[in-house]
Amino acid sequence: MTTSSIELASLLCSRLCHDMLSPVGALTNGLELLADEKDPEMRQRCFELLDQSARISTDKLKFFRLAFGAAGGFGEMVAVSEAKVLVDALVANNPRITLAWALPSDSLPKAAIKTLLNFALIGLEALPRGGTLEIAAEYRDNHSELVVRAAGPRIAFDRSVGAALEGTLPEGELSSRTAPAAMLYQLAVELSGQLQYVLAEDALVLGAVLPRA
After folding, report:
1. How far are the Cα atoms of 65, 73, 190 from residue 70, in angstroms, in the given order?
2. How far is CA 39 from CA 5, 44, 49, 52, 131, in A?
3. Domain holding 58: CATH number?
4. How far apart are CA 107 and CA 83, in angstroms?
5. What is the DSSP string of 83-145?
6. Histidine phosphotransferase ChpT C-terminal domain spans which residues (predicted)?
7. Which of 32, 85, 118, 131 has its CA 20 to 30 A from that of 112?
8. pLDDT > 90? residue 86
9. Helix (H, G, I), strand (E, B), or coil: what is residue 149?
C-alpha cells in the first residue's frame, strides 16, 4: 500500500474534523439556547453544558495534536505522562471504560508516543459497550515496546483498520477511518519497526516494536 503524504494528511484532517464536529456543535447549540433562555436555573444548566463541551473540545484537540500532528512543542523524547494525561481526558466522560496503565519508562520517542495514542484511540473505538483498556509501554535498548489491550463484550473492530496496520489495505479503500492506522504503518516502515494485532470476540490486542529514529 503506497499513499501520498498529501492524501494521507487530507484524510487525517477529515478524521479530526469528524471527531470534533460533535463537541463543537454542542457549543453552538448551547450558545443558541443561552441566548433565548430567561430562567436562571436553565441558564446555569446551559453554562454547565457549554463548559463541558469546551473542555471536551480542548481535550480532543490536544490529543490529536500529538496523535496526528507534528507536535513541534515537544522534543525527540516525550514524557509518557503527557500521553497518559491525554488518554485519561479522552476517557473521562465515559464511565463504562476502565483504564489500566503500565509505564515503567519515564519517556518515549515521539514516534512511539504517537503510536501509543493511536493504539489507545483504536482500542477505545473497539469498546462501544464499555470494558477495560490496558496500556503498557517501555523503552529499552533503543527500542520502544508498546501493547494496548481492549477487553469487553462484542469487540467492534473494522478489519480494514487491521489491513491498514499491516500495510495490505488497497490504496483505493483508504478512508478517514483507516488513515490513522495507515499513518502508523508508514511510521513503522520508516523506523524498520513492527506492528501487529490479535482479534478475539472479547478482546483486541495491538502491539508495536519501534527502534529509535
Report:
1. 7, 9, 16
2. 52, 9, 15, 20, 39
3. 3.30.565.10
4. 10
5. HHHHHHHHHTT-TTEEEEEE--SSEEEHHHHHHHHHHHHHHHHT-TT-EEEEEEEEEETTEEE
6. 81-202
7. 131
8. yes
9. strand
d(CA 9, CA 103): 30
What total of structural domains would you count in the chain? Answer: 1
Does the pLDDT value for residue 3 go beyond 60?
no
Residues 59-75 have pLDDT tens digits of 989 999 999 987 656 77
> Edge-to-edge strands of the sheet including 143-151?
97-102, 131-140, 143-151, 203-211, 194-200
pLDDT of residue 1: 45
Cα separation, 192 vs 144, whole angstroms: 12
Which pLDDT score, from 0 to 100, does residue 22 have? 83
Its domain, for residue 86, covers 5-211
